[in-house]
Amino acid sequence: MSDPLARNRLDGEGSPYLRQHADNPVHWQPWDDAAIEAARERDRPLFVSIGYSACHWCHVMEEESFSDPDIAATLNEEFVPVKVDREERPDLDDVFMTVCQLVRGGGGWPLSIWLTPDLKPFYVGTYFPPDASRNQPGFRQLLDDIAESWRTEREEVEARADQWTAAVRGELEDVPDPLESAPGSDALTTVADAARERADDDHGGWGGSQKFPQPGRIHALLRAADRTDDQTYLDTATHALDAMADGGLRDHVGGGFHRYCVDRDWTVPHFEKMLYDNAELARAYTAAHQVTGDDRYADVARETLAFVDRELSDGRGFYATLDARSGDEEGSFYVWTPAEVDAAVADDRDGALFRERYGVTETGNFEGDTVLTGTASLGELADDHDLSESEVEERLERAREQAFEAREERTRPARDGKVIAAWNGLAIRAFAEAGLVLGDSYGERAAAALDFAREELWDAEDGVLGRRWLDGERAGSGYLDDYAFLARGALTTYEATGDHRHLAFALSLARALVERFFDADSGALYFSTPDTPLARPQETEDRSTPSPVGVACETLLALDAFAPDESFGEVAESALETQGAKIQESPLSHASLALAADTHETGHLELTVAADQIPEEWRQVVADTYLPDRLLSRRPPTDDTLGDWLEDIGVADAPSIWAGRAAADGPTAYVCRRACSPPLTTAGEIGEWIGEFRP
C-alpha cells in the first residue's frame, strides 16, 4: 500500500476549497481514517487547517505559507497536515472553533489547530503570517517550536491536551437541567427587548467595529411588534433593514448581500457572498414588507432572490458561495471610480445621477475606489437636478443596467459550486415564502430546488440525507441543520404549492432527524451523531445561520399537526425544556429558539384550504397578512382522494388538520387555533377569522 503521507492527496477530493490546495508542496491529507492512522503509526501530531473557499485570509495563508517550500518541508516532516472544509464538516469546525474560543477568547478562519495522534488539541490559533509581524508569531518559527515541544516536553503537551479536551466536552456536551415547562411567549419579548436595547441607534443593526446581518433578531422584533403594537420594536427592525439595504453590505448593481461589513456604518463589506445570508435576508425583507406594507422591502427581497437564482444556481439546486476576491484582488468586481461609471453609462446625466446616488468620488471609500452606498435619496436628487422622483428612478435604473453589463466584463469572483443541503433548505424556504407573498413563480422555483435535493441528496431507501452534492456526487452525512432546514423548506414549499409530495418529504426528514439526533434520556437535540470526534456539539445559538435546534423545534411543532402519533411535538417540547434557560441567559444569541418557544405556547394559526386551487383573492389575504405562526394546510376538496394523500405521507388516519374539513360547496377554508371557524367561502370571512384568532 502506498504511503498516504508521501504526497498531497487533495486532488481527488470534491470540495473546491480542498482542491484549491491540491498543488501546494504541503502533503495535505483530507480528514479520513488513512491520515489519522498514519499519525498514530508515526506518533506525529496532526496540523489541521480549517477554512472555506470564499475565505479571504485562507487564501492569504495559502499563498504566504502553504506555498512556501521550506514551510511545507517542516509540515511534511514533523506533522500530518490535514485540510478541512468547514462547510462540509461543520461538526469538526464547531468542536475545534470552540477550543479556539475557550483558549484564545475568539476565533476565525483559517482555523489552525494541532492535535495529538489521538485527536486531542494542544495548540490553536487562526491566521499566522509566515514570519513574526505585529505581535503575531510567525508560522515558520511556530512550527519549529511546536515540533520541539512535542519531542522534549511531551508530558506537558499531553496534559494540556487532556485539559483542553475536558473543557471542550464540557462546553459542548453538558446538557442543562430541564425547566419544569417549556419557555413561552415571554421568551419572544426577552429577545426583542435585548435586540432593541443593544441596537446601534445611530447606524442600525448590532455591533461596533464589524456589522453582521442578524435576521433572527429582526424576525423576533417583527413578531414582537406585531404582537404588542410596540412601535419601538418595529423601528429597531426597520432601522437595521434600511441600513443594510442602503449600505455597502448590499450589491446595488447586481443584487444580493455580502457577508458582513468591517465598519460600524455599513460602508465597506467583506465581499464574499454566501447563500445562507441571502436566503435569510430575503425572507426577512419579505416579512418586513408584510408588516409595514412598504414595497421597498419587497423590491429588496425580489432583487436578492434574483441574484441567488442568477449567480448561485443552474436552475436546480443552489450553490454555496462567491469568493471575496476577483483574481488576486478583494472586492475589485464590485467597486467603482467616477471614470468607470462614466465609461459604463451612456448618458452623462444618468451617470452623474448614479455617481451622486451611490457616492462615487475620486477619493473613494475603499482603497481609492468606491463601494456603492445609498448616499443621496431620490428626493434630494430630484430637487438637485430639477426632475421628478419617477424620472430620477427611471434614469438610475437605466444606469444600473448599463453598469451591470459593464461589470460583467470584469474578472468574476470564483464560485464554490457545492450544493449544501442545509443552505439549500434555507433558500428553498425563502423562495417558497416569497411564493406566498410575492408571486407563484417563486414557489415554483422552490419546488424545483426541492425536487433536486430529494433526487440528489436524499437516500429514501436508507432514510439518510447527504451533506453536499457536487458534479453529480453526493458526499458526507447530513447534520441536524441539513435535516431541519431542508424539512422546513419542504413544509413551506407544500404551503406555497399545495403539492403534498413536499409535505411527505418534510415528514420523512423529520422522522430521520428524530432518530439520528434526539437523545430521549437528556431531552437534547444534538448537531451530529455520536461518532463525532472529541465531542458531540449542540447548536442552540444563532450564528451565521439560524440555530438548528430552534428550526428543528419550530418544524417538528408544525409537522405534529399532520402526524400526531409520531411524537414530533413531544420531541420539540423536550428540547425547549432542556435548552430554554439559555434564552434568558443569552437572549441575543437565541432568537430562533425563542421564536420556536413562542409558537409552542401560542400554537399555529391553521388555515386549511379544501380546494384544487386556492382562489386568487384568498391568496392575496395570505400575501397581505403577516402570520409568522401560520400553518397553511392544503387538502383535496373531498375525501375521495384523501386516502391516497395519507398513504403518500405515511399516516394511517386523517389528522385533525384535515379530518372533517372537506369542501362544502366550492373552495372552502377553515381557520383554527385550538378552536375552529365554520366553513368559510370568501376572502372577507377568512380575513375576519384570522383576526379573531391572532394571539
Structure description:
- The protein is α+β, with helices and mostly antiparallel strands and 695 residues long.
- 50% of the residues lie in helices and 11% in strands.
- A 5-stranded mixed beta sheet has the order 1-3-2-4-5, with helices on both faces. Strands 13, 14, 15 and 16 form a 4-stranded antiparallel beta sheet that branches.
- The longest helix is centred in the N-terminal third of the chain and has 20 residues.
- The chain is globular, with a radius of gyration of 26 Å.
The number of E-state strands comes to 21
**Main sheet summary:** 5 strands, mixed
| Largest sheet: spatial strand order | 1-3-2-4-5
The tally of helices reads 27
Main structural class: alpha+beta
Overall mean pLDDT score?
96
**Proportion of beta-strand residues:** 5-15%
What is the approximate shape?
A: globular
Q: Give the uncertain stretches in residue-range form.
A: none
Give the oligomeric state of the chains in this entry, treating copies of one chain as homo and distinct chains as hetero. single chain
Summary, kept brief:
This protein has 27 helices and 21 strands.
Give keywords:
single chain, 50% helix, 4-stranded antiparallel β-sheet, 695 residues, alpha+beta
Reconstruct the topology from this structure.
Elements lengths: L15 H4 L9 E2 L2 H10 L3 E6 L4 H11 L2 H10 L1 E6 L4 H15 L6 E5 L5 E5 L13 H14 L1 H20 L12 H13 L16 H14 L2 H16 L13 E2 L7 E2 L2 E2 H18 L2 H17 L9 E2 L2 E2 L2 E2 L7 H7 L3 H11 L19 H8 L3 H19 L7 E2 L2 E2 H17 L2 H17 L1 E2 L4 E7 L2 E5 L2 H18 L2 H18 E2 L4 E2 L22 H12 L8 H12 L1 H5 L5 H12 L2 E6 L5 H9 L5 E6 L6 H8 L18 E5 L10 H10 L3
Parallel strand pairs: 1-3, 2-3, 19-20
Antiparallel strand pairs: 2-4, 4-5, 6-7, 8-9, 9-12, 10-11, 13-15, 14-15, 15-16, 17-18, 19-21
Helix pairs in contact: 4-6, 5-7, 8-9, 8-10, 8-24, 9-10, 9-11, 9-24, 11-12, 11-17, 13-14, 14-16, 15-16, 17-18, 17-19, 18-19, 19-20, 19-21, 20-21, 21-22, 21-24, 22-24
